[in-house]
Amino acid sequence: MLETILSGCRVLDLTQNVAGPFCAQTLGDLGAEVIKIERPGSGDDARQWKPPEIGGQSTGFLALNRNKKSVCIDLDTAPGQQLARRLAATADVLVHSLKPGSAESRGLGWDDLHPTNPRLVYCAISAFGEVGQMRALPGYDPLMQAFTGIMSVSGHEGDEPARVGVSLIDMGTSMWATTGILAALLRRASTGQGMAVHTSLLETGLSWMTVSVANYLATGKLPRKMGSAMAMMAPYELFDTADGKVFIAAANDRLFAKVCGALGKPELAVDARFVGMSQRIANREALHTALEARTRLRSTAANVAALRSAGAPCSEMHDVAQVLAHEQVRAVDMLTDLPVTGAPEHKAMGLPINSQGRRGRTGQSPPALGAHTDEVLVALGLNAQELAELRRCSVIA
């Protein structure tokens, strides 16, 4: 089962905000023991992202930090750095999102940790990458959407640039980091050696622009904002209905004919303006007008029913409430119970993969700040007197 894939694997999580925590949470869902190191007093910045909140806790933090233990250690102190190095010596994976050079300045770089733990898989997540003149600059998802050009192709032509409404780069970077870590663990199984893995928000943003970059390099023309449409296909966009909108996706001539038949206009499939994808793209506006004249005559539900009956790909345009209420979403069972203090009915999105009908574990709710400090450090060998002295000096909390 997925929840046992990483059983026995210890992950040291020195990240905050979105990208790193989501990566470590995924490893926890796959069965790893994840120890999250947080600043005494304030912890992960995401703890302060409220409202909204549930049970007094930030919903953003709750969404990204299940299946973890929270240990408060001040990494700006020499004793705190020593504790982190001792924990790293027991870990299989260390993932951090410190600025390039920051981990090294604390004695927590790859060259510092690898000699004492050669099996360690070391993952560093940065904003602009490990090299170059911008390597030390901070970066956030919308900032990187602007930098990598994603905002330049998002929204409608003539409108101001628009941010993609989800944390596309942060969560994408998490996926690349997780992929790199799992690949390194697979390699370690045969070689016995760990390795360093690096990824960044910049590289993720650039990778999401793969097709736009390819089109630009081929034509020399800058991609433009197209709303819900796509440059290489038509019809492939939203259309107004009598009570909302429907997305129609016809990626080839066969599907286009099915769309035309479902909308009661089979003659459009043989109209010279629309025969072949290149002609449909060249006459996109006329095509949109002709199809929308038909979709406007019926409700969204009626359009979807007719299109699906004909085998034409389409979708209603949902808001969050509608998608959560949809029977297909309930069928795939992504929304799982994750009770938290003060909110026993709290739910969260599960891991979007399953094995034999089961997803990774989501049973351990996100931890209170410092909830596991003593547990983890006692297991490391510290006694009560040592813990009391470190706490007195504000090294731990």
Explain what this protein looks like in three dimensions.
The strands form 4 sheets. Strands 5-2-1-6-7-8 form a 6-stranded parallel beta sheet, sandwiched between helices. It has a 3-stranded antiparallel beta sheet with strand order 9-10-11, with helices on one face. Strands 3-4 form a two-stranded antiparallel sheet. The chain is elongated and about 85 Å long. It is of the alpha/beta class and 397 residues long. The mean pLDDT is 95. Helix 1 links the parallel strand 1 and strand 2. Helices cover 38% and strands 13% of the residues. It starts with 9 loop residues before the first strand and ends in a 5-residue tail after the last helix. It folds into 2 domains: 266 residues, 3-Layer(aba) Sandwich (Rossmann fold); 86 residues, 2-Layer Sandwich (formyl-coa transferase, domain 3). Helix 1 packs across helix 7 and helix 7 crosses helix 8. It contains 17 helices and 13 strands.
CATH class of the largest domain: Alpha Beta
Work out the number of β strands: 13
CATH topology of the largest domain: Rossmann fold
Structural class: alpha/beta
Order of helices and strands: EHEEEHEHEHHEHHEHHEEHHHHEHHEEHH
Radius of gyration: 25 Å
Taking the alpha carbons of the first and last residues, their distance comes to 36 Å
CATH architectural designation of the largest domain = 3-Layer(aba) Sandwich
**Form type:** elongated
| Count of helix runs | 17
Quaternary state of the chains? single chain
Beta-strand fraction estimate:
5-15%
Annotated CATH homologous superfamily of the largest domain = Crotonobetainyl-coa:carnitine coa-transferase, domain 1
